[in-house]
Amino acid sequence: MADTVLADGALELEPAPEPDAPFRPTPRGMAARIAVLAALLALILAVPQLVPAVYVNIVTKAAVYGLVALSLNILLGYAGQVSLGHSAFFGVGAFGAGYALTKMQLPWGAALLMAALTGAVAAVVLGAIALRLRAVYFALVTISYGFVAQETLFNIRSLTGGGAGQPAPRPSLFHTDVRYAYLCIGVLAVAMLFDWRLTASRGGRAIQALRDDERVAASWGIDVTGYKILAFVISGMMAGIAGALFASIEQVVTPADFGFALSLTFVLATVVGGAGNRWGVVQGGVLFAVLPTLIDRAHANFHIWPFTSISITLEPAVEALLLILTLIFFPGGIAQQQRNLLSWLSFKRFRQPETGGGPARGGMGARP
Amino acid sequence: MPVLEALEVSIRFGGVQALSAVDFRVDELEIVGILGPNGAGKTTFFNCVSGFYRPDTGRIFMHGQDVTDLRPDQRAQLGLGRTFQQVGLVRSFTVLENLVVAQHKSTRYNVLAGMVGAPASLREEKVLRARAMEVLDFMGLAHLHDSPIGGLPYGTLKMVETAAVLATNPEVLMLDEPLAGTGPEEGLAYCQRLKDMRRELGISIVMIEHHVPLVLGTADYVYVLNFGALLAQGDPDEIRDNEAVAEAYMGEGATSLA
Question: Mind listing the pLDDT tens digit for each residue in A65-77?
């Protein structure tokens, strides 16, 4: 054993292994990666404890938005379907959970399941429409879908509690803000694991194959209709769960929470994060969740331009600016900016070989 | 019983009769060539057979089973594999990943089991990768397994595409201009490989190709399409000396393709 360890150590002197052999980090490289990953994990776990008490709920919101971005990414990044009505799935999940908790007096776990189911049903209805329409026309339908949900479904007083909102108490074990933040971070972590297995198994691969070319996918025996619907089901379930988690942050949800602006924020977060890349979109979600607070704090604390003129009301403008900058300079979003880092952290080489696809490789098609 | 059979297939696009009453059959272990000038309806015929177009009249059979009403993916499940004139690959995947997705229909684990990372699915994933490498090796493409599709030249992509369809484990392999973008020597090697495939994998092959000598040298039986109708059919020698075929390809007065 000692001999092999020494031999491994000696290999460090030779930078380039044979081209066909899969890359393996040197022991030192391995240790460095593990150390950085552990530090990042520790940092993430420490955040709910570190931030001032008034901001803990924003951390929770960040985890929830990360989950929504992950959900939207399945449609936008993997299946190649634009959804501008994601607030509908999210809202349906939130009210579904609220209704289950308050009106049906179900335990919190059952309410979460209910939210996942209602989210999935809402998504399947939209998915059935998606099968009949192409790109722009479908995008238009998703917008109206969001509006219709907000104007009709979310105004049914018995379901949503009307303007006063539907109470959605937290589970007793996670009643404090800090504990609830950990619960949401935990759910996000599980969702990311799930997303990883999805893309590494036949279902996720089939969904991505039909995004690139439906005819090719069909010629390989992939049921295009079925897998498109599957993408909507998975996305809807995740959005529904995110909605349930969101509902219990303030422990009450109102229809006003789920407008078109929210749908747009979700899409922007996913694109700025880097559609197709799970690490990217989660960061996008987190960024857009904390953006209003960041702007507000910057406005209050920095007395120099531009912070003096950017107040909270300009948040949509800042979001739009981020989108434009992303599309011009990094079409692959945050994931593209972090391409080398993400590669290094997943135990590969730091520098990625040129792909020939240019920036597009980091874009809609890229996966970690 | 023929592996694949088309009876009187006709299809019309607006004012154009793209195919009129085309009969066609492929027997077991047979290599069938389809020749014809541009616009003769060769690819349209492929699309009818593989289910992307629905013929106005006529039926398609696989192993005697009427598949005319089946979707493309259902025909693929029954063992029909095809390539596309514009390279049919998943562009955002690497070469190896393409061959792994291509094995979709022979993958046994449940989609849900894959999503939750069930041990059986993880085990089978390894088998899928190993099999993909085997096919790449067979096609002489193993060194490219990690390459993204985006960076490969056209001729290589056509080879990768053939490998991907082979990975679907087809009984009939339908190739639409597999040699477009490849040089003459590669063409010869490719046709030799087709014969190896037929023998080693026990499959039938249908090939649309413009390179007439290669088709006549490889196929057991040849169909010639012109203006959507069958102009001639027969073994390569008959086609070589067919006056109508020579005229369609080389103009009035020609009597032989040779």
Answer: 999 999 999 999 9
